[in-house]
């Protein structure tokens, strides 16, 4: 073939962007086809939309049948997902529809109104006017009822996803307090909070995130207490999340947090409904994600991560003492290994002579410097901790005993590490376990390693520089516009009553100032509560003074 001939029969050139557009049009997704489809009122056509687009799914079932309305037969279709809808409820619907329907008292009503009013004894029945809306309802585990001649369908709430029962929270157990924890069902989680807050001011707003998963996300707040700007900011951040899938609360947290590169969590998560309710009553916003037994609390400050709900269920003296012990454990978990390295390697003159001699005797024969010794042992402890979490509970306990006791003892006897190093690492590990928030404990564990490196290079100066950098970083953090170190920096005298120590509940009259709530007053009966209580079991019981000043006996029931 000549050159002219080849040019003559060559395919026309199509730009790349046009080719991509054509390919996208040819490979249209089911969602796009559902979005472009419309109901026309013909049963065969309307059911055909779902058969053509979703018919490839093995769990899509369509039941065709007839109902009789005053000697008139109507063709119907019931569409549902096998396993996601309740078969018992579907059988009840079909049984009610099979009866002869009397329309003598509903002559002016439309066909679908007669069916809804007389045949569907269900609370949650909703009309679906668009195909996309009906498909979302169907894929949520509900069912659709089509009537021939009706240009819409009836949505029936027959969702029957399996869910576990409400159990005790696994990560936030308390001795004195509620035993109920969140589960994976978002509806059950909302009801657990409603049970504790019977007020019409509690507001629950729903949104969906994830183009493919369409995960339900709700954010809850108390209207009249939560700041409107905070609610608006939470709503805006959730609306700006664009992703294919939303796997859980932790996945969502990474989209909406302020500083993505900080090791410190800026959003608190909890699996306790009482803690979520208390946060809302302080003016915070609680976010629930369907499929996750954790709630997100925003904004969060640093002091929240070493507090528990049990602090408020016990008397303030005991609660303050336990909170102080928790703070000491937190400091242990952060700086204890670096202090040990700096004192042993650079400043041994700062420790008592007898203790220094004992440490030197224990380290005799150890071939590694202190920094390498403790760094390696900390690394092994982190590996053991991670392995214990991943293994089944029965095996995990045995592995931790073997790892800590057997390997530690063998390492000391072999001369790889000194006994004092094992003690330091054990105290550090126990201190990290005392931190109530798991994500905050991970941040401290992670910062422990750079502090140890600084201690090994520069001694106490390095530790101080590291602590100053951490404090400076904490001071620069914000969570939804709230300073992370508040109420310490900036100071708030009412907020300081619930930080390092926990003052009596009747003295904490105001909500946290940094949240700028619309109703700052929290306790209004503090003066009456502090006042004299009387002696109800004393000898003067039953004696009441008259207005004239004379005493007279009163009859008790």
UniProtKB/TrEMBL annotation:
Region (Disordered): 511-557
Keyword terms: Membrane, Transmembrane, Transmembrane helix
Annotated transmembrane regions: 325-346, 396-416, 422-444, 451-471
Superkingdom of this protein's organism: Bacteria
Similarity field: Belongs to the GerABKA family.
Protein known as: Spore germination protein
Lineage per the UniProt record: Bacteria, Bacillati, Bacillota, Bacilli, Bacillales
């Amino acid at each position: 073939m000549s050159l002219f001939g080849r040019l003559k029969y060559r395919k026309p050139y199509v730009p790349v962007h046009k080719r991509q557009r054509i390919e996208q049009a040819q490979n249209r997704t089911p969602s796009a086809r559902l979005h472009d489809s419309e109901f026309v009122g013909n049963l065969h056509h309307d059911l055909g939309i779902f058969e053509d687009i979703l018919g490839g799914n093995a769990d899509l079932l369509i039941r065709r049948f007839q109902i009789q309305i005053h000697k008139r037969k109507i063709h119907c279709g019931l569409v549902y997902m096998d396993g996601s809808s309740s078969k018992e409820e579907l059988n009840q619907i079909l049984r009610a529809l099979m009866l002869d329907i009397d329309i003598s008292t509903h002559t002016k009503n439309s066909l679908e109104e007669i069916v809804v009013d007389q045949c569907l004894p269900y609370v949650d029945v909703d009309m679906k006017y668009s195909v996309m809306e009906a498909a979302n309802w169907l894929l949520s585990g509900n069912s659709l009822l089509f009537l021939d001649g009706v240009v819409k369908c009836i949505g029936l709430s027959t969702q029957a996803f399996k869910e576990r029962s409400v159990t005790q929270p696994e990560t936030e157990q308390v001795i004195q307090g509620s035993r109920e924890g969140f589960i994976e069902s978002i509806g059950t989680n909302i009801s657990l909070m409603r049970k504790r807050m019977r007020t019409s001011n509690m507001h629950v707003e729903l949104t969906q995130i994830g183009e493919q998963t369409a995960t339900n996300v709700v954010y809850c707040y108390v209207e009249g207490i939560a700041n409107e700007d905070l609610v608006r900011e939470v709503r805006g951040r959730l609306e700006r999340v664009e992703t294919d899938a939303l796997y859980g609360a932790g996945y969502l947290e990474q989209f909406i947090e302020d500083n993505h590169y900080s090791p410190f969590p800026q959003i608190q998560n909890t699996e306790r409904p009482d803690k979520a309710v208390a946060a809302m009553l302080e003016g915070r916003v609680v976010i629930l994600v369907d499929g996750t037994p954790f709630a997100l609390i925003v904004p969060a400050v640093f002091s929240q991560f070493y507090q528990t709900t049990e602090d408020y269920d016990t008397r303030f003296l005991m609660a303050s003492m336990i909170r102080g012990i928790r703070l000491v454990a937190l400091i242990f978990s952060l700086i204890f290994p670096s202090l040990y390295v700096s004192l042993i390697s650079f400043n041994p003159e700062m420790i008592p002579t007898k203790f220094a001699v004992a440490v030197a005797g224990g380290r005799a024969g150890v071939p590694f410097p202190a920094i390498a010794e403790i760094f390696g042992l900390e690394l092994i402890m982190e590996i053991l901790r991670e392995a214990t979490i991943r293994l089944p509970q029965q095996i995990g306990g045995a592995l931790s005993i073997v790892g800590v006791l057997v390997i530690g003892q063998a390492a000391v006897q072999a001369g790889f590490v000194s006994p004092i190093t094992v003690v330091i690492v054990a105290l550090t590990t126990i201190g990290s376990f005392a931190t109530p928030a798991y994500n905050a404990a991970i941040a401290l564990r992670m910062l422990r390693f750079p502090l140890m490196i600084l201690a090994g290079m520069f001694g106490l100066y390095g530790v101080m520089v590291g602590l100053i950098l951490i404090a400076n970083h904490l001071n620069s953090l914000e969570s939804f516009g709230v300073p992370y170190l508040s109420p310490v920096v900036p100071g708030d005298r009412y907020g300081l009553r619930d930080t390092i120590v926990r003052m009596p509940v009747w003295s904490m009259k105001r909500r946290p100032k940094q949240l700028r709530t619309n109703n700052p007053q929290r306790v209004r009966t503090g003066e009456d509560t502090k006042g004299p209580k009387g002696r109800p079991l004393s000898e003067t019981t039953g004696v009441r003074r008259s207005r004239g000043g004379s005493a007279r006996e009163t009859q008790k029931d």
